[in-house]
């Protein structure tokens, strides 16, 4: 994938089909089925890492197949990535490439793998940060120039023949597996794979196997079996897979964090210090509010009215978005610039000095600000986040991440200014998760400018401001009340249980529904 392209967890795999279809997930790809729930607490600090499973075994033992079985057997689970050790072969010299094409290079020795890079990438993913994984071609025997961006996995499965051999890797695993398989079956599988998938000759495969693969298995791979928590058969392993998946589900349940209710009604819950959170005064929330002019009052009157035509609603949403974006530009850095006027006179003014600028829209109501954003900044990249609510408990879920390259690469993210767009902040749960995603990528909190039409003072904004005091929030208006309600059924158990929602009063209604329908 080119560096200037956008990326998202899940690749081309449709989320609902992950656990039930016959799709064979590719290595080094985040597979999204259920979405990732909050991995942080009310103070914004990470409270749970990704759960990491290490799978070792001989070449052809069935490590990748076991990883795929685990993914399918887990069912409706959060995001998963299968991370392959094969991607971390070192970059080769011309002399090494000549040996590799002659099947005379030892790919099975631990020194052929960049273990420090493997551990660093795995450590980043475990700590909920993004990582750029190298891509290795078995056709050219060389690492490709463009890495693969990964982010957002709640479960990471790292597999490779040396996955348990390196102590730095072992320290990162929450569960260690070793796939045990008959040596004749491993050789047969390797022959079939290398002939069909990698274009090798049978003679070359056998020579490489006897010279390198078998000795490496005896000297390095098999001895690492003693570090495994579970020995998994390379075939007929249904019982072992069931036990592993039961263990993983239990660990994920232990790490779950019920978050939205604390955001929705913060004054009823306690802060990390143990004191109840008081009702926040408007001046305590550190908001930048658009000047309340008669023009703005007129725009809000039209937007709040249920009888406004769709044409008027769209026009004034775009108008308000443009006013907000123009007002929000004041938070970008500027430097002095001297220009020459048409009559030949020098004039010293200002120019934006941010190295990178981009926009990120929280789908789908955040899309209502994009036209105004483009009218003010028409030449910067735009990304998006999909953070819906779980229908069963109302918790936010990270379901889709598509970010510009200036955020995907951490050294660039540290110098990037981000306009984060959403129509309103009610409970603040989606806003909280979206901010955490940007911070996980290395964006500085003081470089995040959250632009929104409306904020509810009685909702989660107080928790949001306590957790992220350095973020700028620019809004056109503030309403007082967030009201709890139920749709699609009553509160309570049984098949008729409704879905819990929180509504801003007087509010603007479902802005995205009114804008797009």
TrEMBL record:
Pathway: Pyrimidine metabolism; UMP biosynthesis via salvage pathway; UMP from uridine: step 1/1. Residues 52-234 form the Phosphoribulokinase/uridine kinase domain. InterPro entries: P-loop_NTPase, PRK/URK, PRTase-like, PRTase_dom, Uridine_kinase-like. It comes from the Eukaryota. Residues 291-486 form the Phosphoribosyltransferase domain. Pfam families: PRK (PF00485), UPRTase (PF14681). Transmembrane segments: none annotated. Residues 1-21 are annotated as: Disordered. This is uridine/cytidine kinase. Its EC number is 2.7.1.48. CDD domains: PRTases_typeI (cd06223), UMPK (cd02023). PANTHER family: URIDINE KINASE (PTHR10285). One of its GO terms (molecular function) is uridine kinase activity. SUPFAM superfamilies: P-loop containing nucleoside triphosphate hydrolases (SSF52540), PRTase-like (SSF53271). Keywords: Kinase, Nucleotide-binding, Transferase.
């Amino acid at each position: 994938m080119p560096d200037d392209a956008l990326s998202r967890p899940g690749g081309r795999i449709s989320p609902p089909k992950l656990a039930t279809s016959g799709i064979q997930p590719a290595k080094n790809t985040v597979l999204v089925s259920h979405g990732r729930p909050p991995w942080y607490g009310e103070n914004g600090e990470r409270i749970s890492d990704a759960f990491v499973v290490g799978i070792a075994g001989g070449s052809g033992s069935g490590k990748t197949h076991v990883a795929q079985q685990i993914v399918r057997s887990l069912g409706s689970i959060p995001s998963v990535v299968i991370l392959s050790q094969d991607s971390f072969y070192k970059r080769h010299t011309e002399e090494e490439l000549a040996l590799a094409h002659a099947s005379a290079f030892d790919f099975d020795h631990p020194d052929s793998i960049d273990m420090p890079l493997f551990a660093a990438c795995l450590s980043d993913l475990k700590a909920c940060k993004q990582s750029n994984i190298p891509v290795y071609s078995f056709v050219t025997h060389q690492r490709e120039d463009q890495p693969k961006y990964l982010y957002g996995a709640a479960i990471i499965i790292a597999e490779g023949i040396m996955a348990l051999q390196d102590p730095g890797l072992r320290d990162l695993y929450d569960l260690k597996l070793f796939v045990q398989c008959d040596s004749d079956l491993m050789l047969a599988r390797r022959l079939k794979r290398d002939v069909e998938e990698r274009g090798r000759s049978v003679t070359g495969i056998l020579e490489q196997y006897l010279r390198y693969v078998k000795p490496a298995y005896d000297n390095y791979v098999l001895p690492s079996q003693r570090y495994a928590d579970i020995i998994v058969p390379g075939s007929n392993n249904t019982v072992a897979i069931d036990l592993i998946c039961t263990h993983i589900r239990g660990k994920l349940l232990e790490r779950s964090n019920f978050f939205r209710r604390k955001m929705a009604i913060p004054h009823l819950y306690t802060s990390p210090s143990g004191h109840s959170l008081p009702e926040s005064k408007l001046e305590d929330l550190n908001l930048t509010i658009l000047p309340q002019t008669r023009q703005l009052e007129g725009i809000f009157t039209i937007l709040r009215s249920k009888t406004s035509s769709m044409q008027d609603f769209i026009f004034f949403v775009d108008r308000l978005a443009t006013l907000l974006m123009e007002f929000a530009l004041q938070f970008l850095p500027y430097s002095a610039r001297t220009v020459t006027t048409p009559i030949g006179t020098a004039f010293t003014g200002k120019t934006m000095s941010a190295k990178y600028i981009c926009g990120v829209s929280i789908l789908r109501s955040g899309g209502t600000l994009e036209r105004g954003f483009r009218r003010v900044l028409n030449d910067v990249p735009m990304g998006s986040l999909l953070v819906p609510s779980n229908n069963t408990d109302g918790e936010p879920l990270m379901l889709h991440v598509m970010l510009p390259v200036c955020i995907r690469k951490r050294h660039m993210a540290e110098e990037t200014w981000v306009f984060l767009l959403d129509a309103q902040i009610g409970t603040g749960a989606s806003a909280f998760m979206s901010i955490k995603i940007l911070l996980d990528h290395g964006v500085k909190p003081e470089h995040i400018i959250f632009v929104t039409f409306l904020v509810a003072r009685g909702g989660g904004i107080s928790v949001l401001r306590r957790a992220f005091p350095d973020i700028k929030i620019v809004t056109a208006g503030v309403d007082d009340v967030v009201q709890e309600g139920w749709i699609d059924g009553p509160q309570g158990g049984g098949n008729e249980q409704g879905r819990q929602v929180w509504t801003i009063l007087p509010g603007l209604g479902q802005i995205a529904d009114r804008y797009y329908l």
